[in-house]
Amino acid sequence: MSVSRRRVERLLNLTMCLMATSRFLTVSQLGDLVEGYEPGATAEEQDAFRRMFERDKAYLREIGIPLETGTDAAFADETGYRIRRGDYALPDIELEPGEAAALALAGSLWSTTALAGPAASALRKLAAGGAAVGGGLGALDGFEPRVEAAEPAFEPCLAAVQTGRAIRFPYRKVGEADATDRHVEPWGVLSWRGRWYLAGHDLVRAAPRVFRLSRVAGAVRLVGPAGAVRVPPDINLSTMVSAQAPADRERTATLAVRRGTGHALRRGARPAARGCVPPARPHPAVPADMDLLEREFSDTERFARWIVGSGPDVLVVDPPELRDAVVARLRAAAAGSAAAPAQAPPDAVPPDAVAPAVGRR
Known about the structure:
- It is a single chain.
- The protein is α+β, with helices and mostly antiparallel strands.
- It has four domains: 5-88, Arc Repressor Mutant, subunit A (Orthogonal Bundle); 97-140, no CATH class; 154-244, SH3 type barrels (Roll); 251-347, no CATH class.
- The chain has helices at 5-19, 27-33, 43-62, 85-88, 97-110, 116-128, 154-163, 237-244, 263-266, 300-308, 320-334, and strands spanning 25-26, 68-72, 75-82, 166-171, 180-192, 195-202, 207-212, 221-223, 251-258, 270-271, 290-297, 314-318.
- The longest helix has 20 residues, at 43-62.
- It starts with a helix and ends in a 27-residue tail after the last helix.
């Protein structure tokens, strides 16, 4: 049954109202108390309101909410309704401090993906249900671990892990301008030191391999039947990623940033002299209304995705591989491909933050 957002809000208000009292409430009282109901002044409007209530009442019972019927001493001649808290409310939920922290971390992770709504709803329900030890989830106020999942490859790779399907995707290795096609049986998606990785079996190379999701240079395609991929029982994904994930090499980018824009990029950057740009190869001329800045970076694809969000207000002067990555993304956007969204700068993720693995372990 399809339920509109307005009706969902009205049903929630009705449920909360019926749970907030131990006595029976009549239809007339509910019409006055529940936001979303309009009993009306005319007989026609009142009849429409009562039909609406009957539909809502039937729906609540259909989805398993124990709506009880009875009468109150003050209104013995009119039927009333209530929901006993003991029949419907969750019991108190006790969480250890570490468990509460893990839930908060999970909520921050899914905040940038399609599961944002369900994750936020789950945390609210746990808090409302009394999930607490000491301060409980409320004790985590001010503690905001950032585990972003903005890479376009994150969701399709995770879906492949969950369904046990092989995948194909173009992948650009460090120092290589062109991407190569990879055919992988995915075992898990994990975060290591602020970066997301896919661990799995590379079918072309016939060996276990780790792939940084920010270096996936195109669409991730599901291939083969669901359930075909099995994770070897002796594989430790965390050990595999920590052993194979290459250490980041910090480099310097030279950027031309239009005056009055790129405020986030300017933080942490330093001015660069216009005559001191090392010409590794011919680079674009810097317009007069742009400032020349230098900024450190380590992940080319991630930094390129952030720069693209600034549009024409930022030009990459150097190094060439960073400029190529930005140009490739802009061309993909112009061709109608799904462009990567702008995101927080790379240093927004603590470099040594390690998040729990997502997917099969």
